[in-house]
Structure to design on (62 residues):
């Protein structure tokens, strides 16, 4: 019937909107994960620099 068809259309439209929103959120999550990975790399680089400087200081003290 026409009412059932209208209900189905509304359900499809709602589902389409939710899928679109889900896709957007997945994109944002991927971007955020990329930023986290970049930050971890920077921290690892800094830790390496600190380790090297500590080694130099230790060698200088001896």
């Amino acid at each position: 019937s026409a009412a059932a068809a209208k209900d189905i259309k509304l359900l499809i439209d709602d589902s389409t909107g939710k899928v679109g929103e889900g896709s957007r959120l997945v994109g944002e999550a991927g971007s955020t994960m990329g930023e986290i990975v970049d930050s971890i790399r920077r921290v690892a680089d800094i830790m390496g620099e600190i380790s090297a400087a500590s080694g130099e200081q230790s060698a200088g003290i001896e």
User: Anything to note?
Assistant: The radius of gyration is 27 Å. Residues 2-61 form the longest helix (60 residues). Helices lie at 2-61. Residues 14 and 46 are 48 Å apart (CA to CA).
